[in-house]
Amino acid sequence: MPNTDIATTPASDYLKQGSLVMLLSVVLGFAADYLFNLTLSKALPPHEYGDYKVAFAFAALTGVLVLLGGDRVAPRVLAAPLARGDNRSVWEFLRFYLWIAAGLSLLVIFCTCIASYLHLDSTDIRDHHPLLLMSFAIPLIAVGALLSRILQAAKLLMSSNLPWRIALPLLKVALLLMLMTALTRVELWQVIASGAASVGLIIAWQWYEIRRKGLLTVARCPEAFPGPQILKLSVPMMLAMLITLGLNQLDLFMLEALGDEHEVGYFAAAATTAHMLPVAQVTIAGLFLPLIGPALEQGRQSAKALFWQGQRLIVLTVLALSLFLAMAGGGLLSLFGSGFLQAEQALHYLTLAYGLWALVAFASTWLQYAGKGSLVVLVGCVTLVIDAGCNLWLIPLYGIDGAALATLIAMALAAIMIAAGYYRHSAQSR
To answer: Which of 6, 12, 72, 128 has the fewest beta carbons under 10 Å from its own?
Structure first.
């Protein structure tokens, strides 16, 4: 049986405990991830560092795709049963989405191998291109996402969040330093393999925690989880998340195609630095996700109070971090090397872009949980087209600054559309 003392923690106590986890996740998690990127930039030349970031973006996008929103919908459908001490739906949920992820992962790997064999773009199987190698890590990423969301649904934020935000980058740093010590030159495939090994260790630990806490019993109970019905809720969430990730990563793909190869690494360093903002927003939103479903069921007033509680925390955090990046961004970039200061203006554009989106991203999540996922998907599609068009126009003219400016234009328009959509939804529900 699940640990009901944890599952039924009052919302106020849960938020107090979660605030500490959030602080650790944002501050120490960003520091750990930044340390990994700094170490990696020393181990690889700028163009290979850029190749790794492109491959990582590919894995992030396809990792979301193969789950069809299973990770996104988990807190919505599992939090209430776990709070009642009922874990029958957890194994059915995990089993259902693991089968989907396994099938789609094999399809992605097969398509990437075919593209490599046909030498599409710069992919070459004989040179072990990182996109091909990274595709084999996609099933691991999918499993990790599902296990993490089960722990989140049970309000075990420390076990859900900190291993991925802090322990994973530190494990990758440790393995990378071992490679740098043992070898005269670190190869890109070794970096990817060590990262996959680190993910495997985190998965093993989280599985152990889920079993130890009694959150999952390996026994069939099909009536506890109506999979096809839940897909109708999870797929729009997946599409919205996929579009959001696409917006964050499209610049890298298009910069590699339209710009100078070495600029991809410089832009990746700026994006990594500015990524502090979406990380903070996602962490705070994750604190509130297990509470959104019950709040919506309790009525408009309860839901409204919870939304503004989370929104105030996001606004204060994003404004503080944006000010920090405005003052210290150049210094953070210089840690990668003097050449990376070429991306300082791009960093300022990205800080503003990610900051504007972070201010409305919680409203976007709220609309999805309220059954308005199609609106979020539509806004995302329009924004993706705007971003791609601006990249085609601005990258040839301004290089990395043009890519960052394209992101700023697209995300500013997306923020306006989401804010308007949330205001309209709120007005209709009165």
So the answer is: 12
